[in-house]
Each structure stands twice: as C-alpha cells, then as structure tokens.
Amino acid sequence: MIREAGIDDAPLLTSLCSQFGYTVSPLSVLESVGRISPDRQQVILVSTKAQRITGWVHVFISERIESGRFAEIGGLVVDEDCRGQGIGRSLVEHAGRWAIGQGLTRLRVRCAEHRTVAHEFYQQLGMTCTKSQQVFDLQLPGQETAQ
C-alpha cells in the first residue's frame, strides 16, 4: 500500500535514512515532514506492508528558468530487508502519478556517482541519464542545517 506520510511516520523515516547512509536526527526529520506535508508543491509517499513502512519517496515540483517545470525525486529509500520486491518501482510509479496530477510531464532524479545499483534501477524504469554534474555547497551563517 502507498500513502502520504504523516508526522507519526518520522521515526521510521529517520531509520530508513540511516540505512542509506544519511545521518539525520529524528527531530530534523520530524520538522521536515511537518513542513512538507501541508505543502501541495511536494509530497512524501510511504510504502507499507503489515503496517510497517518499507520505503519512502519524496517528490517535489521544481522549476528552472532554462528548463521549465518538472517533478524531481528528492529521496527514495527502500528498507534493506525489502529490496528487490518491487517497492522502489511502485514508489517511483506513484511519484510519477502525483507529478501527472500536478500537470507535469517529466520526472527527474539525481543520483550520486557511486550508487551504480541505483543507476541501473532507474534505467530499468525507463529513465535516461541526461546530465552529469558536481554539487557545490556553501554553509551559510545562522541556524545549523541538516545534511
């Protein structure tokens, strides 16, 4: 079953983030879910089986002056004990349906160079690599930010 995530899901989303190598605090995930949930420009979808979260996808509307509007997957994680069962595919398909419902015709995902298994997964879904890039961050003064 695929449904929208809620505040109560934050602890399990945090746990899945750690499985994928991201160190985030339960509080920062709770705050993110609290900001994302009411925002109609983005959604977090969770896959559940026997009332257990088996994966999640965050998809949002992105707009660029030079390339227009599209949906972008900000994160996709499937529980390591549940991989290979079609959960990731189902989450991406639902993300695509959400995007279509927003009037969008393109779904994009960015994937780190070292995640070669993920590259193969996205290609199997019919996605094509259209760009390689490096990402540069600048830590700005002020409140601490989550990774």
Question: What do these coordinates show?
Answer:
- This protein is of the alpha+beta class.
- It has one domain: Aminopeptidase.
- It is built from four helices and five strands; from the N terminus they run βααβββαβα.
- Strands 1-2-3-4-5 form a five-stranded mixed sheet.
- β2 and β3 form a beta hairpin.
- α1 packs across α2.
- The mean pLDDT is 93.
Give structural attributes.
single chain; 147 residues; alpha+beta; Aminopeptidase; 4 helices; 5 strands
Give the structure's gist in a few sentences.
With 147 residues, this protein is α+β, with helices and mostly antiparallel strands. Helices cover 31% and strands 26% of the residues.
Write the layout of secondary structure elements.
Layout: E1 2-4, H1 10-19, H2 26-36, E2 42-49, E3 52-64, E4 68-78, H3 87-101, E5 107-109, H4 116-124
Parallel strand pairs: 4-5
Antiparallel strand pairs: 1-2, 2-3, 3-4
Helix pairs in contact: 1-2
What number of structural domains do the residues give?
1
What proportion strand? 25-35%
What is the helix content?
Answer: 25-40%
Kindly name the structural category. alpha+beta
CATH architecture: 3-Layer(aba) Sandwich
Order of helices and strands: EHHEEEHEH
Number of DSSP E strands: 5
CATH fold-level label: Aminopeptidase
Write down the overall mean pLDDT.
93
Q: Can you summarize the main beta sheet? A: 5 strands, mixed
CATH top level assignment: Alpha Beta
**Largest sheet: spatial strand order:** 1-2-3-4-5
Note the total helix count.
Answer: 4
Low-confidence stretches: none
Taken from the alpha-carbon principal axes, the silhouette is globular
Gyration radius, in Å: 15 Å
Distance between the termini: 29 Å
